[in-house]
Amino acid sequence: MRALALGLHVLNLAAVAGLLFLCQQLLRAHDALAAMAVLGVAGLLVLLQFSKRLQAWRYVMPGVSAVLVFIVLPMAFTLGIAFTNYSSAHLLSFERATDALLQRTDSEGLGMDLSLLREGEGAAARYQARLRDDDGKDWLSARFTLPAPGAPATGTTVMLGALEDGQPLPGEPLPPRALVELLPQLRTLVLRTPDDRPWRLSSLHRITDQAQRYAPIDADRLRDLRDGSIVTADHAAGVWRDAAGQALEPGFRTTVGFANYARIFGDSSFFEPFVRVFVWTVSFASLNTLLTFALGLFFAVALSWPALNGRGAYRVALFLPYAVPAFISIPVFRGLFNENLGEINLVLDLLFGVRPGWFSDATLARAMVLTVNTWLGYPYMMILAMGLLKAIPEDLYEASALAGAGPVTNLLRITLPLIARPMAPLLVASFAANFNNLTLIALLTEGAPDYLDTQVPVGATDLLASYTYRIAFNDGGQNYALACAISSIVFVIVALLAYVNLRCFGGAKATRR
Amino acid sequence: MAMVMTSSQRWRVWALHAVLIAFVVLSLLPLLMIVSISLRPGNFAGGSLIPKAISFEHWRLALGLPVVDAQGQVTPPPFPVLQWIFNSLKVALVSAAACLALSVTSAYAFARMRFRGRDGTLTAMLLLQMFPSVLALVAIYAIFDRLGDWVPWLGLNSHWSLALAYTGAVAQHIWLVKGYFESIPPDLEEAAAVDGASRWQSFVLVLLPLAKPVLAVVFVLAFLGAMIEYPVASVLLHDEQQLTLAVGSRLFLFNQRYLWGDFAATALLAGLPLTLMFLLMQRWLVAGLTAGGVKS
Question: Could you report the predicted ipTM of this complex, rounded to two decimals?
Answer without folding.
Answer: 0.88
